[in-house]
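Chapter review: from sequence to fold.
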Amino acid sequence: MTSIIPARTAPSSARPAPGTSGTGPARTVSAPLAPRARLLPSLAAVYRAQLSRARVARIPLLFVATFQSVGIMILMRGVVDGGAEARAVVAGSSVLVVAFVALNLLAQYFGQLRASGGLDHYATLPVPPAAVVLGAAAAYASFTVPGTVFTAITGSVLFQLPMTHLWVLVAVVPLSGAALAGLGAALGLLAPRPELATLLGQLGMSAALLLGVLPAERLPEPVGWARDLLPSTYGVEALARSFDARPDWGLIAFFLAICAAVGVLSLAAATWAYRRAAVR
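The token string follows.
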């Protein structure tokens, strides 16, 4: 037979706070909150998720970006014979693969993510905002590696440039990718509509095409100033200098350092834009 205990006589699960007598009203002690997710594990998780998400479109993505850059080099082959201009064309076309993915497609992705309410999903996850931006940027930039290497090798053969120092791409691709991905993410997050984010991404890629592939000596002076403001310019300059018979490694390191600094600034701007868009 089951007995019913009155509510006033039921034992209480609340324990008295330390330093108080058990005769007074019991106070519940709140459980400690879970520790905040750290940046590096969160970054790795977002990177893997984004990488698996975009894996389906990897082959068409690489084909379009690489075919575009190789086609530009073939067209420029009839205008440029060799020398510094040929080095600029090959370097600019190689970095253009990075710009197509990291700037153009990432701007479209974050623009659609903001319009569809996908940022609300990320806002509920216990991950820092920087991990979301960096993870997505790193995943998109990873797809550019095969196309950039293929474009650089094809251009070196087409313009008869030495391939001895193409290992510089190991530094050029991630640094240029970080700078352009941060810019693309910021454009997508700040654009009020996804159509405008797509337009800004296309304009940014067109700027990387015109200001990066064309030799700097042939550009008007005001356009040259705009070229200096483009984040990918310093990656192009570093790669172009590596084609010299005797590269100036100090100058190459200087350009890479500028590219790294611009990358930090652009990713910081993208993180700020993510915080701003997520709270709206």
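Two observations follow directly from the output. The chain has eleven helices and no strands. The mean pLDDT is 80.
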